[in-house]
Here is the input.
Amino acid sequence: MTDCFGIDLDQEYRCLHYHTTLDIVGLKCAFCQTYYACYHCHDQLTEHAFVPTGSAEMFPVICGHCRKLLSRAEYACGHCPYCQSPFNPACHRHKDIYFLKES
Here is the structure.
């Protein structure tokens, strides 16, 4: 099973920084290849800054409800295609932190 890390993490990956009912994803750091609830948690728990994933990363997101690994396109739909759990629509504001801009 794939793990996700964070500070004060609950069982659906809500953390100290983001904890609404819709904050249920883990995002992969390209440098350490590990999922974290958010970049704040990552940066506080590791000795390097969060590095966004590029298009070559097949599964940069994990759903905190069903634990399925998701592609960037699946995540962009706004809900998990496997369990239908909705994701926080405000997270699009952080997309440049988690995903490299592709030209």
User: Anything to note?
Assistant: The chain has one domain: 4-98. Residues 4-98 form one domain. Strands lie at 4-5, 25-29, 34-36, 61-63, 69-70. The longest strand covers residues 25-29.
